[in-house]
Amino acid sequence: MAGSVTGGPLIRPDETLQGIGGTVTAIPLTHPGNRRWWVAFAGAALLLGLFLLTLGYLLAAGPGIWGNNNAVVWALDIASYDWWIGVASGSLLVSGILLLLGAEWRGAVNRVAETLALLATAAAGLYPIIHLGRPWFFFWNLPYPNTYDLWPQFRSPLLWDAIDIVSFLVICVSLWFIGLLPDLATLRDRAHVEAMRQLDAKAPTRKVALLRAQIYGIVASGWRGSAAHWQIWVQAYRTVALLGVLLVVSVQTGASVMLAGSLMPGWHSTLVPVSFLVNAVYSGVGVTAVIVMLIRLVYGLDALVTRRHLDVLGRLLLCLGCASAYCYAAEYFDTFLNGDAQARGVLARRLTGDHALVSWTAILCLVLPAQILWSARARTAPLALAAVGLLVAIGAYADHVMVLVVTLTQDFLPSSRLPYGVDIWGIATFAGSVGLFLTLLLLFLRYLPAVSIVESRRLALAEAPAVQEAARQAASRAAARPEENPASAPLWGVSASFASQGDLAAALQAVSGINPDHVHLDGHGPVPMPRTLRPLGLEGRSILPYALAGALLGGAGFFGMCLYATAYDYVFLIGGRPRLSWPSFVVPSISFAMMAGCIAIHLALLVLNRLPRLNHPAFNIPGFLRASDDRFFLTAEARDDRFDAARIERRLAGLPAEAGRPLEIRRIPR
């Protein structure tokens, strides 16, 4: 049972499929809390303006405005990059793991986590570019044909960053769009209904409503909730999530490999990869908790984001807080017991040196706030969760500053020791990137569903099956009669509507043997319909071969390009590494493999489902808009002139009320 893990319901028992769609789509269609949104957007826009001002000054004066020097070449710029990519990694990992584990409560969290991963990656991607000094030449880090006959340096961490960011962005966009696609269809249909209502009423905003419906229709790509669509969608969603999880592990452990590639003390512990990964996930969950609490409060989504969701988020934060505390304790004990003099010196400077405040901020904010979540009352208090999440985000940023700055200010040579002080322009750049993030987030909340409609509906069907039972009983009281169409109209096929997936599956089973060579059967509904796959003969379809082929070809191709360039075509001695320094090629090759596999999955999703297709005869079925709402449809398409519509209608009309009788049967003209 979905409600057996912790106490309390995941969704209100009286929620219906139609009610869930109406609650979530009302936010982008009617804009509740409009004044508060504009106030927040104005604040975010001011920060975004500060970001643009800072970038303009940076391009004119150079990276020296951040206060970096010959010793501390990485400071707030790379710390901000690491923090943003950590938030993105944590959000992506949480979303992917919840999806792969099939957590039924994920619908209230996944959409926010996927959006945060995408927007944080966009914010992070700017930092490796703007810290180059001449950012307009950023593309020199990428392998591309050029007149200079030059290759990028594949053994350099700078190239790893470039490949990681591009791969991360591709996977985040793909996971976000795939999860959003069915919800866009729901928005399309509801926006169409609203546009028609305004046109009939001659409302002054009717042109805007019509334009909005057209835009949603285009981005929905012709999704119609076909059983074939859902089958490939579920596989694509889960497989991209798996690739995202693998990429997160690769990127976070790869970051520790970048640091370990230098001689600087304090960056060579085998605990660093684990610590990076734990704190990245921790910060991602913390920021996700803050945003989920704000959305729940502002838009009144208490029915979909329940106290049990808060409890689960609190438990996640508590577990990650304990894991972070363990990482700190293990690192400090190991350094004091087994570290050399230089490593101990780094640890001492972290705790008592010029930047001790940053270090203690990291430790206290990452370890202590989560401990209040041992209390069940605190775990279900929105303000407490938001406060803990915010403190965790602050602590994670301080941790990145601590790891970089404290080590770089003092290396092995006394002559190269230079102090570092935080500059106002470094703070302004980070604040501006927060403004960019918030601006994009607010636009997302205004125009797209903040909670997954599909996952919430699946949860409602699992938690409250009585909802569909009531609809099925209403169907049993109706005598299904075929609707007559003019005999002169060319016939496309026959459609029938149902109240539940079970009735649709029973009807498909009943008619699947009628002239199979002359009929193409399909089912349509607002949620995935695994029970319809056997009657439709779709059980053998899989997207995994495309994913595997794309990942293997992409990873092997990139690895081969690295070997060819460094060993044969562009031979230079870099950092004492040999020509065939294959360990340096593993990190970017894995990232590229994940990206190539993701692109292959996305293309397979569209090609196998024959999308985009903005106009399909099924859209001509009366009431078909409810296929994205609360109805299930059977379509029997005529393949040739020997199509026997009357026989199909008789078979459907004769089904028992409790086993597949349709609500309505219609003949559909072309």
Radius of gyration: 28 Å
Roughly how much helix do the residues carry, as a percent range? 55-70%
The fraction of residues in strands falls at under 5%
Overall, the morphology is: globular
- The H-level CATH homologous superfamily of the domain at 2-463, spelled out, is Formate dehydrogenase/DMSO reductase domain
Largest sheet: 5 strands, mixed
Class computed from helices, strands and strand pairing: mainly alpha
Distance between the termini: 45 Å
SS summary, helix count? 21
**Low-confidence runs:** 1-5, 474-479
Strand order of the largest sheet: 1-5-2-4-3
Q: What is the chain-wise order of helices and strands?
A: HHHHHHHHHHHHHHHHEEHEHHHEHE
Q: Could you give the count of β-strands?
A: 5
What is the fold named in CATH at topology level of the domain at 2-463? Formate dehydrogenase/DMSO reductase fold
What is the typical, i.e. mean, pLDDT? 89
What is the level 1 CATH name of the domain at 2-463? Mainly Alpha
The CATH level-2 architecture of the domain at 2-463 is identified as Up-down Bundle
Q: Mind sketching the topology for me?
A:
Elements: H1 17-30, H2 34-61, H3 76-101, H4 107-130, H5 157-201, H6 206-219, H7 227-260, H8 272-299, H9 307-338, H10 341-352, H11 356-367, H12 376-379, H13 382-408, H14 424-447, H15 453-463, H16 466-476, E1 482-483, E2 491-498, H17 501-511, E3 519-524, H18 533-536, H19 544-569, H20 583-608, E4 632-638, H21 645-653, E5 664-669
Parallel strand pairs: 1-5
Antiparallel strand pairs: 2-4, 2-5, 3-4
Helix pairs in contact: 1-5, 1-15, 2-14, 3-4, 3-7, 3-8, 3-13, 4-5, 4-8, 4-14, 5-6, 5-7, 5-20, 7-8, 7-20, 8-9, 8-13, 9-13, 10-11, 11-13, 19-20
